[in-house]
Amino acid sequence: MSGTNRAIGVLVMSYGTPESLDGVEAYYTHIRRGHPPTAEQLEDLTSRYRAIVGGVFPLRENTNRQADALQRTLDETAGAGKYVCYQGLKHAAPFIEDGIAAMAEDGIAQAIGIVLTPQYSSMSVGGYMKRAKEEADKRGISFAAIESYHLHPALISALEQRVKDGLAKLGGEREEALVLFSAHSLPARILEMNDPYQDQLLETSRAVAEAAGVKRWQFTWQSAGQTGQPWLGPDILETLETLAKEGVRAVLVTPVGFVSDHLEVLYDIDLEAKRRAEELGIRLERIDMLNDDGRYMQALAETVMAANDMAGSAAGEKEGGV
User: I need a labelling partner for 314 at 20 to 30 A (CA). Which of 58, 123, 188, 282 fits?
Assistant: First the structure.
């Protein structure tokens, strides 16, 4: 497309996942910054995917549905044609740079970036935005970054309902159940960087617990990397052991750091954590993930529109010499 497209480009970013079991090695190699995994490492990751998908690989479609649902929500809320969504993945095609390149080809001059995780960390969301901004600058596209939306009312409402529904699954055990909020661990050095990740996760957890009327809750980490350096803890498996010793017999895991069904949810919680909970005599249930829930899409759409308004105000002040 020649000329300038007046629509606002929305780069919808997420971690990415391989499209099939055949793509796991290339995906893992990209995560490892170009260093191929050992045979043992590859088998470990492949076996995890095999355990949750059973020969069918629907995970990639989750992100596609989220991007499509956000496009529909923006069209309904702001008017068709005002915003155009593009995908940009960290470790799989279309990569973040591919999404920006597609915008440039379509003549997009202004873009907004949003990541499918509500809380900000310089090691996660910050890295996505850095790559997107660098590519946008190369291509002459004005780029505005959304850092977080972890307390958006529609997000909290969607999670509140899922917690209530999850507790209902526990039947007679719901009154004594503990709601265990979780998120992906990061290297512990972020605590020395004044990074807001941990605080924002706790703020989200507290807001959801209050909205759902939950008194018994706590936070834990999960899915830490194996890098030889300390990661934030305790891990969910350790937390379950502690809870068992304290007499807790029912837990509702609420992964507030994740928004869709993927490996860290379907394997790390549904298989690994649930198996450990059973060994400890704990009944473990999990909330349904947000995926393309309408309230989650509302939170994303309203956050995008607010960012566009802010970018427009900033541009106006600059032109006016303020």
Answer: 123
